[in-house]
Design brief:
The complex is a heterotrimer of chains A (629), B (175) and C (102). Chain A is mostly helical. Chain A has 27 helices and two strands. Chain A has four domains: 211 residues, no CATH class; 243 residues, no CATH class; 34 residues, no CATH class; 50 residues. Chain A has a two-stranded antiparallel sheet with strand order 1-2. In chain A, α10 runs antiparallel to α15 and α13 packs across α24. Chain A starts with 6 loop residues before the first helix and ends with a helix. Chain B is mainly α. Chain B contains eight helices and no strands. In chain B, α1 runs antiparallel to α2 and α2 packs antiparallel against α3. Chain C is mainly alpha-helical and 102 residues long. In chain C, α1 runs antiparallel to α2 and α2 packs antiparallel against α3. Classes of the chains: A mainly alpha (629), B mainly alpha (175), C mainly alpha (102). Chains in contact: A-B, A-C, B-C.
Chain lengths: 629, 175, 102
Amino acid sequence: MQQYLYLIPALPLAGFLVLSLAGRYLSRNFIAGIGAGSICISALITILLSARFLQSPPETGAYTQVLWHWFSVEGLVSNISLRVDSLSLVFICIITFIGALIHIYSIAFMREDRDYARFFASMNLFVCAMLMLVMADNLVLLYLGWEGVGLCSYLLIGFWYETPGNYRAANKAFVITRIGDTAMIIGLFLLFKELGTLYIPDVLARATQHFSSGADGVTLIAILLLCGGMGKSAQLPLQTWLPDAMAGPSPVSALIHAATMVTAGVYLIARMHTIFELSPVAMQITAIVGAVTLFVAGCSAMVQTDIKRILAYSTISQIGYMFLALGVGAWSAGIFHFFTHAFFKALLFLAAGAVIETLHHEHNIFKMGGLRKTMPVIFWTFTIGAAALAALPLVTAGFFSKDQILWYAWSAGGGHPVLWALALAGAFITALYSTRLILVVFWGEMKTTPGHLPSRVMTVPLVILAFFSVAAGWIEWPHNILHVDLFSEEVQHVLPATVLKEGLPAEIVFQLIAVVVSLIGIYSGYSLYYGQSPLLQQWKQSPTVMSVRDFFFSGWRFDQLYDALIVRPFLFITRINKSDISDKLYTAIANVSMLLNRQFSVTQNGSLRWYVTGVLIGILFIITLQLLL
Amino acid sequence: MPILFYISSLVAILATIMVITRYHPIHALLYLIVSFMAIAVTFLSMGAPFAAALEVIIYAGAIMVLFIFVVMMLNLGKQTAQQEKEWLQPRVWLWPSVLTLVLLAEMIVLLLRPSPTDMPAVAVDARQISLSLYGEYIIAVELVGFLLMTGIVGAAHIGKQRKKSLHRFLQTTTT
Amino acid sequence: MAPIHAHTVLVVAAILFVLGLAGVLTRKNILFMLLSVEIMLNSAGLAFVAAGARWQQPDGQIMYLFILAMAAAEVSVALALVVQIHHQRKSLDIDQLKELKD
């Protein structure tokens, strides 16, 4: 099995190459076959690989394959080589499996689009880059995938580049993630300077010997890597690009949010867990960033009216949970939440895409409504996804992962009551806006008449995803209910086990609180948005509530803040320096040359006698020199 | 025969001065022939009879005749002389004369620096020259043959009487 | 009978050369410029012959021969050009031929 490892990223890459080079000469069916087929085969290989991996784990704990030597500079040896351990395996499964479903869905979703081949080429490259990221055995190759993911997100967010504003969203995503990338590459440089290697197993092994716990160097590196993760994973304060990234087609949003891109930060932190464990400060910052982000983004999701923006903010919030889990030291819980979140978030985005497509590109949820009867499949799958998002107890995957995180937020080694309170508030808000979304979109009276309903190619992936949104949680039960922990057992080969604090109330107390809170959230959403709630009408009159709503609606005014703090001063400076000062030097050189040219070209006047005079003066000069010397 | 040399070189210099100051082309040409004749005499006095003969036959004979042909063909007469008179103002010839005089002074200084050496008055006759010419200089002779050939072809080509025409590079700018 | 100094001949050649140069510089008529060029070539030949006589070698005269051939070729081409220029421009003013100006 090991020797077929390279096929997993190579097939999407091949698909990308074929589609980008020959896409315009191929028929639509052929393009769809190549675009979706390459990912599907990758997914099949991955499933076979993971079955083999689970049956008989390799002795070293990882499959490795060295493809070729990339470069070696001054002690830095970089290979194009793949390494799959159980952590990578989780990510590969999600990326290829969900990626394949999204591709199949896109076959129908993008059917009418002019740039069919370009779409599938970019999507394939996206998946390929993400696979490189998680399969890389050294940080240089990881960074290659990291940048590839950034590039593809740029290409896909700006896919409909003719619509004004979309290119702006793409630029924003690219520039903001670039801030994180810069921090990350500095972190990698420092890591290489300190440890002398970027081969991941060596890095992890040497870090514990080289650094003492809490040393300044390792803290700095960890924080820089965290900044990289924050940029890609849209965590505070670099989260502003993600809501705007909804400019891309819905499958792209699904791919970015569920399988690729935003989870890269989670992967990086989990992969570099030794570095983070050596620095309690960085761990704390990670946890705080996650907790604050999940709360801030949740508040914003509560008041959005654009269906995709609601989901975008909810993604930021859910990734915040993952960061929180990683930050408190609950490594496997964070990865498990990634695992379940991928299913239901992909489901929600694809279902939302189907709704939007059916309602003639209507994004505003308050212009939808009453779709329960007309689109039953979409309704049921969307409801399952939303229930998983709201962490409906025991029947959804979201519950199992989120419940773990809520518990660990207090009880794990880095846990704290405040973090737990924020996470709990986030859980309440999540339940509230999930209920709101379902009620507003699918109940009530119909405000927009639906067009033709989504085809089977689109609904089948939704059903599969809905199944996993329910079933994916069953592989890992809370310890006190059922002793099933397939996931953490597997992941624990790579990630350290979670350390628990002593002397806390029993786990069941936390679980009950979490269950009650999400149920309250669902109930309050129901009471506010089912029919005409008097309380909601009252709030709409109140200026205080409305100003708070506006504040949340604008994403806590982060865009305005950055605009005032960074963009405007920068534009001001550029305006001052419009005629670039350093350019002056070069234009001066050019001007002097042109002046000399004009002066000298006077001598080229076409007069023969003038030339002869020139020769004569030259002779005189030489002879005079000879006489004088 | 130093006297012969001095007289003939004086004649050559004077005739040359006359050449460059004449207005009428035919006058200038005639003075130039005088100058060439005088130089032929200096060759003789230096013991180079073969060169003297060539000077008279080819320079004064052939080349100057070519010039005269052209002058006749273009019908350069009084009108040209008049124009030359207008062109040869003192401000035109003053600066070139100064420059060339400086050059002359410098050359004479350079020439007279080493102590003067005498020239033996023994003639180098045509036999010696032809032996050397067809011995060690045979390749040069052939090259000169090529040169003359191209001269003939070039003159025949350029001198063809055609309608007024410009090179295609110049057409857009001037016409 | 005192022999001729080699330097004397060279001085004569220099004078002739400078006179030719002055002619090239002052005259505007192409025909006169060509005449002046002939003078200069001739003076160079004179210098070669003088050198040959000084060392009693035939090489000076052979060089003179080559100069002569070169002058003949040059004159034939140059006079063809003169004829052509006069034919096309009805003038032999060198200052009118300025197409190569920058």
